[in-house]
Prior knowledge:
The protein is about 30% helix and about 40% strand. A hairpin with a 3-residue loop joins strand 4 and strand 5. The protein has three helices and seven strands.
Amino acid sequence: MAQSFKISTTLPATAKRIYSAWLSGKEHAAFTGERARVDPKVGGRFTAFGDYIKGTNLELQPNKKIVQAWRTTEFPADGEDSRLEVTLERVDGGTKLTLTHSNIPDGQADSYKDGWKKFYFKPMKEYFGAKK
């Protein structure tokens, strides 16, 4: 049975800045510390963390929402992609990023939930909080 979760963090940047960085291979790589390639349009393909993560942009609402078909090399070869929805909302202190990850293969949700916090939220706070 597929699993899902929803987590949020507040980042010290504008929604426009975060949206742009998420969809830029260069900046995505800069905030995660791993190679990324992104074709920033609906139907565009992406990879992150080398080729560990890959998928397709399903819906893009500039500076508000990114929806992606998302999978890792740990997904069963014949398994469906999961669905990743990232929403951005202005709040005091920056932007609230809410990540909803659904259709995750059974038994993998806790690992991905921890991974988002450790490999995305934490370095993104540092990256966007750094003086440029």
